[in-house]
Write a structure and sequence with these properties.
Layout (H helix, E strand, L loop, with lengths): L35 H11 L2 H10 L2 H15 L2 H10 L4 H13 L11
Length: 115
């Protein structure tokens, strides 16, 4: 379904080709408006090229930037954060700051030690 954010309806579900990205959920119940941050985060981090194109067609640039500023900069790995910030038009300085913060944060699994 190709839409623009202005025409997104809360009852709209993710398309079937995205289901493999949400394998641990019931993807037919994932709404593109109510679960927008979840959908964006998953696609930005692990999506295919096709899913990334769908993401850009479905959500406005402003919505992508809002996600990056509020949540994405805290949860996305540095490489993915830099890519999405770049194509969303985030300034170079802000992008570099976000990526540096992302690289310097302690990751839950990185702090674990084997016994």
């Amino acid at each position: 379904m190709e839409t623009t954010e202005g025409t997104l309806k809360d009852g709209s579900h993710i398309p079937e080709f995205l289901f493999p990205l949400f394998w641990e959920y019931e993807p037919e119940n994932i709404h593109i408006v109510r679960h927008a941050d979840f959908v964006m985060g998953r696609i930005m981090e692990t999506g295919t090229w096709e899913s990334m194109l769908w993401l850009r067609r479905t959500y406005s640039r402003e919505r992508l930037i809002s996600f990056l500023e509020k949540r994405g900069r805290r949860v996305l790995p540095p490489r993915e954060l830099n890519y999405w910030a770049l194509i969303s038009g985030i300034s170079r300085q802000k992008r570099e700051d976000w990526v540096m913060e992302s690289r310097n944060k302690t990751h839950v699994w990185g702090a674990k030690h084997a016994h």
